[in-house]
Design brief:
The complex is a heterodimer.
Chain A (H helix, E strand, L loop, with lengths): L7 E8 L7 H4 L19 H4 L17 H4 E5 L12 H9 L3 E4 L4 H9 L3 E4 L2 H13 L4 E5 L4 E3 L5 E3 L4 H9 L3 H6 L2 H10 L10
Parallel strand pairs in A: 1-2, 2-3, 3-4
Antiparallel strand pairs in A: 1-5, 5-6, 6-7
Chain B lengths: L4 H7 L2 E4 L4 E5 L2 E4 L4 H9 L10 E4 L17 H17 L2 E3 L9 H7 L8 E4 L13 E4 L2 H10 L1 E5 L2 E8 L8 H12 L7 E6 L1 H5 L2 H9 L8 E3 L4 H7 L8 H11 L12 E6 L6 E3 L7 E3 L13 H14 L14 E4 L7 H11 L8 E4 L4 H9 L2 H8 L2 E2 L20 E4 L14 E4 L2 H10 L10
Parallel strand pairs in B: 3-4, 3-6, 4-5, 6-7, 9-10, 9-12, 10-11, 15-16, 15-18, 16-17, 18-19
Antiparallel strand pairs in B: 1-2, 2-8, 13-14
Classes of the chains: A alpha/beta, B alpha/beta.
Chain lengths: 206, 465
Amino acid sequence: MPQQPFTLLSAVGVPLGQANVDTDQVIPARFLKYPRDEKYRTYLFHDLRLRPDGTENPDFVLCNEPYKSKGQILVADRNFGCGSSRESAVYALQDWGFRAVIAPSFGDIFFNNSFKNGFLPIRLPTQVCNTLRQDLHDNPGAEITIDVEAQTVTGPDGVAHSFELDDFRKYCLVRGLDDIDFTLESMPKIDAFERDNRPAWLGHNA
Amino acid sequence: MPQTMFEKIWDAHVIEARPDGQTLLYVDRHLLHEGSFHGFEYLDERNMPVRRPGQTFAVADHYVPTASRDLADAQDEVSRSLVTRLADNTARHGVTHFGIDSPSQGIVHVIGPEQGLTLPGLLIVCGDSHTATHGALGAYAFGIGASEVTHVLATQTLWQIKPKSMRIAVDGARPAGVTGKDVILAIIAEISAAGATGHAVEFAGSLIRDLSMEERMTVCNMTIEAGGRAGMIAPDEKTYAYIKGRRYAPEGEDWDQALAAWKMLPSDDGAVFDTEVKLDAAAIQPMLTWGTSPEQGAPLTATVPDPAHAPNAEKAEEWRDALAYIGLQPGQRFQDVGVDKVFIGSCTNSRIEDLRAAAAVVKGRQVRVKQALVSPGSLLVKQQAEDEGLDRIFREAGFEWRDSGCSMCAGMNGDLAERGERVASTSNRNFRGRQGQGVRTHLVSPAAAAAAAVSGRFADPRDFA
């Protein structure tokens, strides 16, 4: 789906120092049946943010200012977004106001889903992520800058770190493009593949 | 140049490869469930058809009630509407639908193989992370998100970057009482919940070859719990025997051609994997998970690990957090820990062999937990189990014999436990809140779940042999 283009972002970073934050934590399954409306943001980290009685859990980073209202870049720990394929995890992060998440590693499906929504997952080395989180803890409200064209993340300490991003994803991110439109241009190749490369034993159109 | 099975299947599906690594792959079969509504909305907004409805198959599993086949028993109006929307969307687009009224309904990853839709060498996708299950038959199958589902509906293709390859070899004779579930839990405990991230995994070795088809599906199913993109096992005589005669399987001359093609699929001698892992079969025992990540697993005969003995400070913190949530003390014997509820079901462990293994433990005994459920993986599995009299064994022991669906694995249909309750579950994820807010999930094999049900606490299934 067409997205808001992503080129340059300077915004408040939010440190989330837990490993293996699965997509059930990002958005519990009981919310997946609902449409993506104005309430969607309230599903984000629902059971981590809120206690059983519905009050905010002050021990969770997103319940505290300035993270709560200004945070747009999440800095997480290893294997962020593991587990279920629910793209709702990306929707909830976006609807809260996040535009990117930085972590040492990600669940593969979450990583792919992110790009499809113009949301940027960035892999940086463990030590860099640890330093970024420490800086954000020590200086709440400190900003991180993401430059998509240059493929760099600059932390509060002013140090720039390069990240990997393939040309195709960069092209789509910078322009806010829908990859279905892109693929439709390859339709003659798809037609040819279907004609020439499919095993006969599968039968026609099967 | 010798190739891995994964590389052979990948290469056979490449339509176009870009210099940056993005590769357009052809999708042979696309499986849908209720969550596909995002994709159909997109097509409808743009007035686009499903490009290959004949290669698209849908199943209602996530939101269907298991108390009956009556949609009136769905937990709420929204869940009901998702089940009916799938029926409407598939009817409008000419897609085959195994709906709540179909005698072949079931969990998508159970009915794919059961219907013969899952075949060696095929590229199969589904908007569900447990799609790796289908790799047990030598397919390359992986879970995708809602946008990718839309892309496949519209184009029958997907852009992917080629994952790395990994071979996990488990060699040696199968120890008594060890099942496929124990094998995969032991593998995840060994390599971690991110040990296979970015990889397509081939499971190999003599113990893997010794597994039944159902057990192979259990192993591949949980590859994602080790972070793996896909899990696969080379097809062999067991695979061919399993497939032959199934509804969508090739027949006659097509069967002969297919068989010849399938026999070319196994990794060549000398094929190089990016990563190799070896496990000793003899060291594997009946397992359970004790924490909130599938990597936190241990033998049922062991004791709760002590964070003071964790390999590093970071792990120690994770273990402490997990134990606080799960309500266990370091040093406690697992077999002294009481269980409140038992769930036998899910795309991981709900097939006929799973139900037979559980019934063998339950037979002649009584349930000693608050609630014990069996939700067969499909209505065909349910029927076969009833033909074999397994339902009577479960019912007489005090189990609830339910209809088929994802049920208490993800709880999306409302089959949930209560805060603080401890569940012995044959499903795939022990994440916090997965089976209900504050619920403590322990992953086990069907035999171990049955042993817990009739003991009121965790028990070693080998004691019931």
